Amino acid sequence: MADARRVRFLVPWLLACGGNGATLLPTDAAVDVSPDVMQAVDASDAKADVAVEAGAYGAPSSTYPAFTPWMGQLTNNGGPILSAPIVVTITWDDDTTGRPIFEPFGDEIGASSYWSAAVGEWGVGPVTSGAPNHVHISTTAPTQWADSDVQTFIQGNMGGVLPTYAAQMIYVFYISPSTTFMFEGQNACGSIGGYHDDFVYNTTDISYAVLPHCSTPSKMTQYASHEIGEASTDPDPSTRPGINGFDDPYLAFEEWQRGNVENGDACEFFPDSDYTEMAPFAFQVQRLWSNKMGPLGHSPCQPFTTPYFNMAPLMLEDIMVDLSSEGGPANFATKGYTCALNQTIQIPIGFYSDSATGPWTVTVAESNPLVDPVTGRLTLSIDPAKTSGVNGEQTNINVTVIAQGPLNAELLTIISTLGTTTHYLPLLIAN
Questions:
Q1: Is 230 found in the same domain as 117?
Q2: Would you say 142 and 149 are in contact if contact means Cβ atoms under 8 Å apart?
Q3: Which 8-state DSSP code applies to residue 141?
Q4: Can you tell me the distance from the alpha carbon of 229 to that of 304, in angstroms, rounded to the nearest whole number?
Q5: How far apart, in whole angstroms, are the C-alpha atoms of residue 326 and residue 392?
Q6: Is residue 347 part of a domain?
Q7: 363-408 pLDDT, tens per residue?
């Protein structure tokens, strides 16, 4: 991935994959229960792309998925990945409700089926923790704290209150409920659920995560699973990025994520990514991004074992996007479709699922409708003759570009809904 693009996401998007890999506060989703984890299979088992047959809208298929779907792939930038993470759980003595939850969470996550499914494909091994890595801070919790205070505390307390920092260690701070945590000059509870970062001290690169006390302890373990997962696959985001950012052909995913592009970020906008695991690891957690499972037709956010369905673009094109307004190159090659200003195109999209389902409906929206306002630069519709379907069928999106934005490309979202479950897929339209 081009250096200029990397700068784009490590500098302007500090809530994301750069110096502060933050968990944005998503909309709360209904908590569900995950059954046994589905084992990942080799991506070579994915079905080859096939032409849609049997008329203009194809035909249902009993091959799952009916074709290899297009799904974002996170980039391995070559930074360290933790093969044996060590979690140090840090709490204050006044947090009598949270501590009995946070410490078992850190002790048990590493041996759970959740953990192996969420991060195993990246080469991350089991987390270790235990009583020697439980830190109880007995001094009065500060009224207000910020990221610089966290780093100062670490520097002044390693080998004392904190265990001496060791390779693959992550200091995980659960902020006291009596402390207001400030993130980039504002109360963190208005914007994030947590973040992780690193800094160099006496030539040692120290990784840590911070969980402000902005919600219930159960909800905080969800944010902690996100941050510990990211800190294991991208422990040094400020100095040596690891799993961080989408590959160039998948710029649509990076734009859809607003630059929040570590393996936890990539799933945080999906409502069904938040759930409660089954015993023996019965904690609230977040699913994390899998490069392997998405192209096989499964959910890219794992573990996920209920039937997955979505839409995939057919006959993608090579396009050029202008990223100069975001600190990147003026001519950036990626994938999408081209539509000239004041012109209309029809984009074919396919229905796919990883097992039998009923028909689901498909709609389309500008931008990322979960977090961003409509730009008014596109008019969009689904072919009115085919607004629902099942695995193997297809329909079309009608797109008209009515104004040009700063990227010389516009983002749209394909929305698939079956019952109360909704899945999303972003696309870029260059102009």
A1: yes
A2: yes
A3: P
A4: 16
A5: 38
A6: yes
A7: 999 999 999 888 899 999 999 999 999 999 999 999 999 999 999 9
